[in-house]
């Protein structure tokens, strides 16, 4: 699993996870140790599709950072 995005809180991370689920991409949430944020992890083979799905399903300003 690789980082696809970083969310600022659990609600945002779950929204992104729902977008990915709708695109048929499995994902996991993982707390970021160095920041008060949550990483969204996807299989490496789905990374580009996940980024596209996240980009089309969210406002880019909503994301804390891209990995």
Can you lay out the helices and strands and say which pair or pack?
Blueprint: E1 2-7, H1 10-22, E2 28-31, E3 38-42, H2 47-57
Antiparallel strand pairs: 1-3, 2-3
What would your notes on this structure say?
The chain has 67 residues and is of the alpha+beta class. The chain has a single domain (2-62), classed as 2-Layer Sandwich (Alpha-Beta Plaits). 36% of the residues lie in helices and 22% in strands. It contains two helices and three strands; from the N terminus they run βαββα. The protein is globular. It starts with a strand and ends in a 10-residue tail after the last helix.
* Rg (CA only): 10 Å
Strand arrangement within the widest β-sheet reads 1-3-2
Number of helices: 2
Q: What is the CATH class name?
A: Alpha Beta
Determine the CATH topology: Alpha-Beta Plaits
Question: SS-based structural class?
Answer: alpha+beta
- How many domains make up the coordinates? 1
Strand content: 15-25%
Residue windows where pLDDT falls under 50 for at least 5 positions: none
List keywords for this structure.
alpha+beta; globular; 67 residues; Alpha-Beta Plaits; 3-stranded antiparallel sheet
């Amino acid at each position: 699993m690789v980082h696809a995005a970083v969310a600022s809180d659990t609600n945002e991370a779950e929204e992104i996870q729902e977008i990915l689920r709708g695109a048929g991409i499995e994902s996991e949430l993982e707390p970021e140790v160095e920041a008060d944020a949550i990483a969204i992890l996807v299989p490496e083979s789905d990374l580009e599709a996940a980024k596209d799905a996240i980009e089309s399903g969210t406002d880019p300003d909503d994301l804390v950072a891209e990995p």
